[in-house]
Design goal:
Elements (H helix, E strand, L loop, with lengths): L13 E2 L6 E2 L2 E7 L7 E6 L9 H14 L10 H19 L3
Antiparallel strand pairs: 1-2, 3-4
Helix pairs in contact: 1-2
Length: 100
């Protein structure tokens, strides 16, 4: 299920855990539990999500989104679908560079 940070216009800007830039094309890639205070979600931009998620995880996130999204079409995905596709493309490119 997509996170609110990747949905709709006027999207919240989140900091990418890798490049440290405030971005709107982010995916939740992990979380940190804390003994005191609120837990927080770790985000990465589409270009760097592969550093935190395996290629298969990105693909599964995309497939779950496409199956549940009413507006995604194969040739014209919604904003979240596009971000997930970009993240998958970056993960696939990184995997081929590393010989995986």
């Amino acid at each position: 299920m997509p996170h609110r940070a990747t949905e709709g216009p006027g999207t919240a800007r989140r900091m990418c855990a890798h490049c440290k830039e405030l971005r709107t094309d982010v995916l939740p890639v992990g979380g940190t539990e804390r003994a005191s205070g609120a837990d927080f979600i770790v985000f990465a931009c589409a270009a760097h999500a592969h550093r935190y998620l395996h290629l298969d995880q990105v693909w599964q996130m995309r497939q779950r989104h496409v199956a549940a999204c009413r507006t995604c079409k194969p040739a014209r995905p919604c904003r979240t679908g596009l971000i997930l596709q970009q993240a998958h493309d970056a993960a696939r490119a990184a995997a081929s560079e590393n010989g995986r």
